[in-house]
Amino acid sequence: MKKVFALLCSLIFVFSVAGLSYGEDLRIDGSTTVLPIAQKAAEVFMKKYPDIKVFVSGSGSGTGIKALIDGTTHIATSSREAKEKEVVAGKEKGVTLTGHKIAFDGIVPIVHPSMKISDLTTQQLRDIYNGKITSWKELGGPDRPISVVSRDTSSGTYEVWEEKILKGDKVRADALLVASNGQAVQTVAKNKFAIGYIGVGYIDKSVKVLSVDGKKATDASIRDGSWPVARPLYMYTNRTPTGVIAKFIDFMLSKEGQKIVNEVKYVSIH
User: Are residues 19 and 93 in the same domain?
Assistant: First the structure.
């Protein structure tokens, strides 16, 4: 009996260390871009299924996918597709990364509301972020240095921006790196000469959204891909989900779940 008890205690310890609990608990971790969707969906989901507890956190796309591979989360949210090296790392641990497209997002450049500039080209954005353009004067603005705000390199938002705007260039060395969309908004809102970029779900009145190449970020331009920095948002599971995990993914893809996507200012998949 003592041996059985000791074995049970050791199993409880293993599950505790892994961060996964018994019963109907569900853990979601990853992208700060997807975080508002996941939080609202979890809130509504728990009202529908009060016996299920959903815990949501946002530590970044790469960190979320790593947590799924390591077995410390059930669902990884990501603002980019899983990388080949992540897929390989998963297979080495018996995890098959399976992506579920749950929404669309547009990454938008933001400035302080007092900035007179309203439109930039993709080339101008590239040159601001790689350091070729350093003053607002070069863009028709005030004769002041541009304070560049960027996401850290573990961010899926950063990786999409690097791919579609920087096109492989590195962000200028003196750029201020922030850990979340929310921090990007707060930083730009406090600096009249800053520029940053965020997911559309984080837009508020404290910042001004720029158009790009004469286009505005709308549901239609984001959904059809004509917005220069449009992207799908994902929830990743290990293999085809079952049980509580499948129930949550199905809810996310239902009409009710897609309504939540729109309510938190992202773009539904249909």
Answer: yes
Q: How far is CA 220 from the centre of its chain?
A: 20
189-213: pLDDT as tens digits: 999 999 999 999 999 999 999 999 9
pTM of the model: 0.82
Cα(116)–Cα(25) distance, rounded to whole angstroms? 49
| Residue 1: exposure state from Cβ atoms within 10 A (0-12, 13-18, ≥19) | exposed
Report the alpha-carbon angle 259-260-265, nearest 5.
100
What does the alpha-carbon distance between residue 144 and residue 137 come to, in Å, rounded to a whole number? 7
- Indicate whether 75 pLDDT > 90: yes
Pair 170, 216 in one domain: yes
Q: Are residues 65 and 131 in the same domain?
A: no
Q: Does 208 share its domain with 120?
A: yes
- pLDDT tens per residue, range 83-133: 999 999 999 999 999 999 999 999 999 999 999 999 999 999 999 999 999
- Residue 37 has a pLDDT of 97
Q: What is the pLDDT of residues 133-177, one digit of tens each?
A: 999 999 999 999 999 999 988 888 999 999 999 999 999 999 999
Tokens of 247: 């129930």
